[in-house]
């Protein structure tokens, strides 16, 4: 399947901040996701596309995650003990695997970003949207993704 310009992908757009006034980072949120595959063994492949200079929700991965930047730049800001860390800029072709949990925000660069994620969530728990204090606002599971759209394979 061609990923970068496939008209058959189903994209779901996310924008705005969660309803936790005063507890969220006040950054522009504008990104979209398209599920490629969700398998019963807990493996998930999903594409995310960021608008230029826009973020995804503040979150943490709760399962081992591998990502590959396909287009643009992905600017990643980790938060450790409530403190923003220096931004890491990942460019097209950059691959990363993280098995540990980390709190972070991701932002599309000047031309946005397109990133392929592979997540292995044996227990079905993929990530958690959190507030700036680390409190869980919403847990995202494989069932949540299955209920949004069918796998595209």
DSSP strand tally: 11
Unreliable runs, pLDDT <50, ≥5 residues? 149-153
CATH class: Mainly Beta
Q: Given the structure, what is the number of helices?
A: 1
Q: Span between N and C termini?
A: 8 Å
> Can you say what the CATH homologous superfamily is?
Jelly Rolls
| Backbone CA Rg | 15 Å
Q: If you consult CATH, what is the topology?
A: Jelly Rolls
The CATH architecture can be given as: Sandwich
**Order of H and E elements:** EEEEEEEEEEEH
**Approximate helicity band:** under 10%
Domains counted in the coordinates: how many?
A: 1
Which structural category do the helix and sheet elements fall into? mainly beta
> What characterizes the major β-sheet?
11 strands, antiparallel
User: What is the typical, i.e. mean, pLDDT?
Assistant: 87
Quick overview of this protein structure:
With 153 residues, the protein is mostly beta strands.
List the helices and strands and how they pair.
Blueprint lengths: L11 E4 L14 E9 L4 E8 L8 E3 L3 E16 L2 E2 L3 E4 L3 E4 L4 E18 L4 E6 L5 E6 H7 L5
Antiparallel strand pairs: 1-2, 2-3, 3-9, 4-9, 4-10, 5-6, 5-7, 5-8, 5-9, 10-11
């Amino acid at each position: 399947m061609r990923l970068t310009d496939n008209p058959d992908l189903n994209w779901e757009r996310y924008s705005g901040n969660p309803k936790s006034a005063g507890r969220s980072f006040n950054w522009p949120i504008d990104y979209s996701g398209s599920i490629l595959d969700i398998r019963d063994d807990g493996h998930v492949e999903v594409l995310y596309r960021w608008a230029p200079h826009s973020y995804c929700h503040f979150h943490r991965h709760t399962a081992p995650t591998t990502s590959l930047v396909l287009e643009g730049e992905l600017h990643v800001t980790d938060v450790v003990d409530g403190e923003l860390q220096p931004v890491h800029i990942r460019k097209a072709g950059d691959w990363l695997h993280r098995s540990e949990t980390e709190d972070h925000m991701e932002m599309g660069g000047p031309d946005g970003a397109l990133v392929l994620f592979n997540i292995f969530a044996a227990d079905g728990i993929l990530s958690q949207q959190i507030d700036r204090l680390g409190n869980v606002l919403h847990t995202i599971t494989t069932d949540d993704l299955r209920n949004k759209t069918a796998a595209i394979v």
